[in-house]
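Incident log, structure service

09:12 report received: a user says their structure output differs between two submissions of the same chain.
09:20 pulled the input from the user's history:
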Amino acid sequence: MAKKGQEKNTKNKAKHSRLVAQKKNKKKQEAELRKERLKAIIKKANNNTSNES
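09:34 re-ran on a clean worker, output below:
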């Protein structure tokens, strides 16, 4: 028997997809930013140790 009324999960599907994509992109961007910061810290630490010796 077919369901009556609106199909499940179609009304806000586009909105949901957009929000999930935003969330993924934000998390990915934060991870990249963290990696860049860590690289800068490591580079600075390596320069300091090479200058001291």
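09:41 both user submissions now match this output. Likely a transient worker issue. Closing.
09:42 reviewer note: The helical segments are 13-52. Residues 24 and 44 are 31 Å apart (CA to CA).
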